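Follow-up to my post from last week.
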Amino acid sequence: MAVLTIQDLHVSVEGKEILKGVSLEVKGGEIHAIMGPNGTGKSTLSSAIMGHPKYEVTKGSITLDGQDVLEMEVDERARAGLFLAMQYPSEISGVTNADFLRAALNARLGEGNEISLMKFIRKLDEKMTFLEMNPDMAHRYLNEGFSGGEKKRNEILQLMMLEPKIAILDEIDSGLDIDALKIVSKGVNEMRSSDFGCLIITHYQRLLNYITPDYVHVMMQGRIVKSGGPELAHRLEAEGYDWIKKELGIEDETVEQEV
Amino acid sequence: MIETKLPFDQQYVRTFSEGNGEPSWLLHLRLQALAKAEELPLPKPDKTKIEKWNFTQFSHHVVQSAPLSSLEELPEAVKALINLEDEAKNLYVQRDNTPAYLSLSEDLKEKGVIFTDIFTAVREHSELVEKYFMKDGVRIDEHRLTALHAALMNGGVFVYVPKNVEVETPLQAVYMQENKEAALFNHVIVVAEENSKVSYVENYLSIHGEANAVANIVAEVFANDNAQVFFAAVDHLAKGTTVYVNRRGVTGRHSRIEWALGLMNDGDTVSENITRLIGDGSYGDTKTVVVGRGEQTQNFTTSVVHYGKHTEGYILKHGVVKDSATSIFNGIGKIEHGASKSNAEQESRVLMLSEKARGDANPILLIDEDDVTAGHAASVGRVDPTQLYYLMSRGIPKKEAERLIIHGFLAPVVNEIPLEGVKKQLIEIIERKVK
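User reply:
Got it. Predicted complex:
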């Protein structure tokens, strides 16, 4: 069973400290949700875990099954079993979605173990059908000209194709209408198993109506300030964040404009 | 010091022309051109100094090669370009300056399509060739290199598609540089008469890795009223070959010319591609991809000139530059007075893969008419780190991620090539060059 362990993580962007000591453990079989208003460091956490070059870890550790994630390059992190569904996926012209997915899958499987073309096509067809995606999305250039909803769905397609141990979904729900939200949730729920852990970053409770988390954490000022079960998300939905701020004596919950 | 005196005289040109059995109009044109070549200056490609390049000194103007008795004799690299299985293929192969193989389907012959080497064409279709040869396309007196081209033309093909004929299978031409010191003055003419349609695909390639040669290439494309011409080229001449290549198109009313050019030479190159949209409602689309590597200097000028009303012109140029190569990209959209309701669009992007590489994208719009639309986008930069991060976050190693991005960047031309063998070869060339 996979375990992602984050301890006392401090992260700076362009010299400015955004995360100020985050500790969290995500195990296979668990779904965690990190909630919080804008600008509290949620996306910074996800980028730091994946290794975005702009984010500098100044203190603390991240391990996956005991292996030091911070020592790994971005691609090594992915091959070790991490996945980040991005808030703003890149558009890459001239590279078809299918070619990209096959390259990613083969990188994971390693030289000599590449997936056969037929098997790949079957798998891709199956997942695309499951996510109710138009078959020609496979042959379009990666995210180029995709609508916001199509991009998010495409992130989930990648998740399902690559089958990581631990996935981070960074605001996968932003800009989605209710139908798209349901499909995206269906994809994530399909992945649920004891081999799959997930960290969902969102500032709306809405998504959690479709994907029930095991744990809910609230982030403010670059730290996790409160943790609980799914009931915490319901209370946030009903009452907002002010009660937490009051309880903890926080006036301004933000750290810096989120990048 | 580069010798500027031409190595050939009137007597040589006369003997050469007569030896080919050329009609007198061509002999006279050649002699006239030779005289002009002595006095005209070199072209002046913007931002590249070519005064010291060798365009005129070479060892062999003519080398003797045997025609091919079978395509099996071809080197593997050339065989790979050709669909050997296809019985009805339309194929011309030239070994240096010698026409070595020709096949044209019976069906097309019956329809009156002409696809033959330029020497046969001037002998058998003299008037037709004369009508198009260096008149409304490229003129002999533009500069020294066009003049020299006419004087010394020693190869090429003539394509003629009669009115209302649609050629389904692309016509393919392969020009092989076999002799490392042979000069190539290749001339291609493609004429599509009213309502006709044709695709022509050409490859220039060297059999050896390095040469000491000169290539002076002219292609003239004429799409008459309502005709459609698709012209694809992959140039891959060896290091040490100084290349001047001028591809030009002229449109009639409501006609289309589309270019897909993979310019992959390894020597110093000046490439010019101009489409003149003369006819109202005509359309020109030019896509060019380029890789510069090693020490080479290249200059690519692409221009679409609008004369007719309601004309549309599109320029796309994507270039990759690595090592200490220099590549200059000039894109010119020009709308002449009277070409109302026209649209000129261009996009030039250069990807730099090393510190010492030099790349320059110069988009130019020259507009002499009010009622038009135009736009351009240009950029010079490195591989986008955000794109790299995205691909790597899926487990793709950095090198492979870069490779994908670069291939994607050059895909606009690769995807247009209608012949599988040629397309695959272009992908392989790109692969080798950017590695």
